[in-house]
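Sample intake sheet
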Amino acid sequence: MTHLVHLRIASLVLFCVALSSVALAGSDRTQVGHTINVGPGEEVGEATCFGCSIRVRGHVDGDVTAFGGSILIEDQGQVKGDATAFGGDVRLDKATSIAGDVTVFGGRVRRDPAASVGGDVNNFSGARWMLLIVVLPLAFIGGFVALIVWLVRRLTRHSVPVTA
């Protein structure tokens, strides 16, 4: 019986090591508060940034997404997926390309005429889009929490017996 337990533990350890080596082999970049720079000749799987910007001068095989920051593609930078910025701008310099869509919420798209975009360019500029994206879901979640609190209070309310 203990032999079987040791075999299961060894299998679990081997699985975890294999899973971590696959995660380390991936070339995705995710940052919070620090700018992501993809240099010339550098290749990255995907780039995702929270509260920072992304600068691409090399190649990104997947999507580029910035929450609260801008995306700058320059010096013949290429993105094979989509570029999406929430609360920031997307700037495409001369001789750059994005194979997918470019979408900007609460910012602007600045595109050189020589820049190539394979998909659609969607620019939802202005504060009303940010309000729609941020405030509406928060209001829904707040209403849901208020409903749960109301239900819990109603179900846990103690009844007082009537005395005659």
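Comment: Confidence is low (pLDDT under 50) at residues 10-26. Residues 127-156 form the longest helix (30 residues).
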